[in-house]
Amino acid sequence: MPAYRRILVLGGARSGKSRFALQLAEQACPKRTYIATAQAFDDEMRDRIALHRLERDSSWQTVDAPWELAQAIQAQTGPGKVVLVDCLTLWLSNLVLAERAPQPETDRLIHAVCEAQGPLILVSNEVGQGIVPSTPLGRSFRDEQGRLNQRMAEACDAVIFVAAGCPILMKPTPPLDLKLA
User: Using CA atoms, how far apart are residues 96 and 137, in angstroms rounded to an integer?
Assistant: First the structure.
């Protein structure tokens, strides 16, 4: 399998996407940085963050970047180390809840990803496959997340979808030769 510099790992909640991304990073390089976007607003989120920390050994450096993700990627990527961002969905929700416009922030993020000077793995939720959210904020967020994932997939060399712990390579794909009968 060829080497890819930028990989997007997508999946639903509890799909195994973070575990898979962690394994990819650990196979890639012994020097690793984990950029965390989560914020611990309640006990449940504190517990989730603690569990994610237990999955990483002492070889990992952790950088918290709940809002300034583009700057963190620019500062942390470089030759000889791998950077794992977990996750774009929490980053986007942080922006929305802080009433920051997602579009200019996404533009900066895409630029940082394209300019990254070393291997980069990004984790994101695929939120558009479930039920339609019942609130305008929920529908708006789902749409923003879908746009972010599409732009990120375009910027990355490879896209992997994880379902039930099983990775499926979505990009690159061979050309489709579809014919209608």
Answer: 9
In 3D, which of 145, 27, 156 has the Cα closest to residue 87? Answer: 145
pLDDT digits (tens, 9 = 90+) for 119-129: 999 999 999 88
Mean pLDDT of 2-22: 92
Strands (E), the chain: 6-11, 32-36, 60-64, 82-86, 120-125, 158-163, 166-171
In this structure, which topology does domain 6-171 adopt according to CATH?
Rossmann fold (3.40.50)
Assess whether 52 carries a catalytic annotation.
Answer: yes
* Domain range list for the chain: 6-171
Looking at residue 2, what is its pLDDT?
60
Q: Which of 6, 32, 52, 81 is catalytic?
A: 52
